[in-house]
Fold:
Amino acid sequence: TRGFKTILKEFNIKIVFKANNTIQNLIGGAKDKIPELNCSGIYEVKCGNCECLYIVQTRRKIVYRFKEHLSHVKFQCPEKCSIAVHVLDNDHLINVNNIKIVKKINDIRLLNAYESIFIYK
Structure:
């Protein structure tokens, strides 16, 4: 790379080298990372007993929305969500280990579009 600098110097082109060991790289980011389930976006819920998979969107924290799914099952309210319908009709189980974050989304205007993309993927 130093030889390359010498060649380009003949054409009045200056090369600047940048160190990779900056303070930012050494100590990392100052902000704490948000836990996976404490964000909004698109997530999938897999049935614990079969291959059924549900793609769901939420504007709120995913952990709160999933607790609502569990509540709908517990209090037998299948009209509230399709996950509850499946669990109650088939006597299947879901738990927090069955959640996978598909896409974190902060802009709520994009939720419907992304949900459709992941459903038809």
